[in-house]
Structures are given as structure tokens and as C-alpha cells.
Write a structure and sequence with these properties.
The protein has 311 residues and is an alpha+beta fold. The protein contains seven helices and seven strands; from the N terminus they run βββααββββααααα. Helix 3 packs across helix 4, helix 4 runs antiparallel to helix 5 and helix 6 runs antiparallel to helix 7.
């Protein structure tokens, strides 16, 4: 899908075709659309290919008056077991002499907010400023998702206090994976932003410099939050693992004590049922085996109780 947008009277307006100064939004393009980008708009084929590669890492490149800024942006997904998972996907931003082009594999909130006019004071003609606004929106989205992860973690902790269900533990594991994805992507984005800050590849004015510094501050804050939440979540997982092991030990201890108590009557009646010449003295007393079994079981129960085998 290829869409064209242009700022008119401080509003983002969708236009039917390409024009100089417009923003070209490309999402999951077809083969024909990729050919249009390369052949008609003269975009660097390697830049387009890199933007559509999930494994590409964040970086900035310049080739023949075209600049590629590749960053990772956050996504909210879910796994087969309904586990919430936050991940990242590459977003390619190509700047030419007249236009700015964003290329992504799937629709995302960062780009859709601009397309829907939710972000104000955006000028598509000011390519560098628009680029920085996109990067700022991406950093803000990281912070939003990190706060959501923190709330979900707190909610799951309260639920796990009452019930140790596998679904809840898998959800915590999914959040832990999400924080790893975020930390890795944010650190790569930080390196790319620092390269932009040097001003060697993209020329910036003073206002652009201030905006880029704001983006870096947001990214650094997101990195710190991801690191803190990751350590906290890791400690929480270790704590619940210890609780599960402790509960298992308690259950095994109780089962062992119950097994001992059940074995005593079995031993008594087995001894009574032995075929010995001359018979047993218990033959004279019909209820003797039952009485002995109860007595020995009570004695063993008292001993086990004092040894705290039932706690």
C-alpha cells in the first residue's frame, strides 16, 4: 500500500498522487509497488530492501543524495496462548532532495498517528523536522508500552499470590522477552540518533538540533526504564520460582508423612495374617490388631506432628 500526504494549512491531507514535498507512506508493498518506488521514484533498491527486512538493525546511510534512517519501533502482538507480547519491527525512512518516504512491513501506531492527523504542526516539506518528529513519536511509544508492561506485571503479581497458573507464568515470561527486545532495539536506535546528532549526514538547523536532543532524552529514559523493569521482572520470576519449589517441598513432605501413617496399619495386619505354626497370641483377641494399629498410628502421628511434617 502506498499513500501520499501533504501538509496544507497546517493539516495533514491525503492526496491522490505524488507531488514534490509530500510524504509517501509505504506499508507492506507489493512487487509492483516496490518497482514503482525504485523505477518511478528512483529510490535506492538496497534502501527499500533494507526497510523491508525484519532482521535489519538500526542504522543510517547516505547514497547518491538519498539518506536512509532505519530504526526499530515497538509493536503490540499476542502469541498462540493469548500471551501479550511486545516486540519491535524496523521502520525505514528515506529522505530524497524533495520528499520523505516511510517504509514498514505492517501498519503501526507511530505512522498511523501522523496519517490520521493526530500529530499537530507537522510540515511534510520540512523533511528533517518531520523525520525527527517520527523518531520522537517512536520513542514516546516505547515509554507508553513500558508503562503498560509495568502495570501488567503488577497485576500478574497480585494474581499469582492467589493462584500459580501456568498461563500467568507464561505471561510474565512474555513480558520478560518483550523487555529484552525493547532494550536491544533502543540501544541500537540510540547509536543511530547519536550519529545523526553529529550532523555529518543530515544537515540540521538549531531548532532541529533541540528536537533531536529531546528524542535522545526520551530514548535514554526508555532504555533506563526497560533496564529497571527487566531487573525487577527477573527478580519476580526468581521469587515465584522459589515459592513454587517451596510449595512442592511442602506437598512432598505432607505426602511422605501420610504414607508413613498409612503404612503402619498395613504392616500390623500383614503381620497378623502370617501363617505361623501354633498361631499368634492375637488370635485370642479379635480386636487386638485394630487396636494395635490405631495405637501405633497415633504415636507416629504425634511424632510427625512434633517434627512439623504437616506444615
Amino acid at each position: 500500500m502506498i499513500q501520499f500526504y501533504l501538509t496544507e494549512h497546517n493539516r495533514m491531507v491525503k492526496i491522490p498522487s505524488f507531488t514534490e514535498g509530500c510524504w509517501i507512506n509505504v506499508i507492506s508493498p507489493t512487487v509492483d509497488e516496490i518497482s514503482y518506488l525504485v523505477d518511478q521514484l528512483q529510490l535506492d533498491r538496497d534502501f527499500v530492501r533494507a526497510a523491508l527486512d525484519e532482521e535489519e538493525s538500526s542504522r543510517i546511510e547516505n547514497e547518491d543524495d538519498q539518506t536512509l534512517v532505519l530504526v526499530d519501533i515497538p509493536f503490540l502482538t499476542s502469541e498462540d496462548n493469548d500471551t501479550v507480547l511486545y516486540t519491535t519491527r524496523p521502520l525505514g525512512i528515506i529522505m530524497t532532495e524533495t520528499n520523505i518516504i516511510t517504509i514498514s512491513l505492517q501498519n503501526n501506531t507511530v505512522i498511523s498517528d501522523f496519517a490520521n492527523g493526530m500529530i499537530r504542526n507537522v510540515q511534510t516539506q520540512l523533511k528533517t523536522r518531520f523525520l525527527l518528529r517520527i523518531l520522537l513519536r517512536g520513542a514516546t511509544q516505547y515509554l507508553t508500552y513500558l508503562k503498560q508492561i509495568d502495570k501488567i506485571t503488577s497485576s500478574l503479581e497480585s494474581k499469582l499470590d492467589k493462584s500459580m497458573k501456568n498461563r500467568l507464568l507464561m505471561q510474565l515470561l512474555g513480558l520478560e522477552k518483550s523487555l529484552v527486545y525493547f532494550s536491544t532495539s533502543l540501544k541500537a536506535d540510540e547509536i543511530t540518533l547519536e550519529k545523526i546528532l553529529r550532523g555529518r549526514i543530515i544537515k540540521m538547523y538549531e531548532e532541529d538540533q533541540d528536537l533531536l536532543e529531546d528524542v535522545l532524552i526520551e530514548v535514554k529514559q526508555a532504555i533506563e526504564m526497560a533496564s529497571i523493569y527487566s531487573r525487577t521482572l527477573s527478580s519476580t520470576m526468581d521469587a515465584f520460582s522459589s515459592v513454587i519449589n517451596n510449595n512442592l517441598n511442602i506437598v512432598m513432605k505432607i505426602l511422605t508423612a501420610v504414607t508413613v501413617l498409612l503404612e503402619i496399619p498395613n504392616m500390623v495386619f500383614s503381620f497378623y495374617g502370617m501363617n505361623i505354626d501354633g498361631g499368634l497370641w492375637m488370635d485370642r483377641f479379635q480386636w487386638a490388631p485394630l487396636g494395635i494399629a490405631i495405637l501405633l498410628t497415633l504415636i507416629a502421628a504425634i511424632i510427625l506432628f512434633k517434627a512439623k511434617m504437616f506444615k
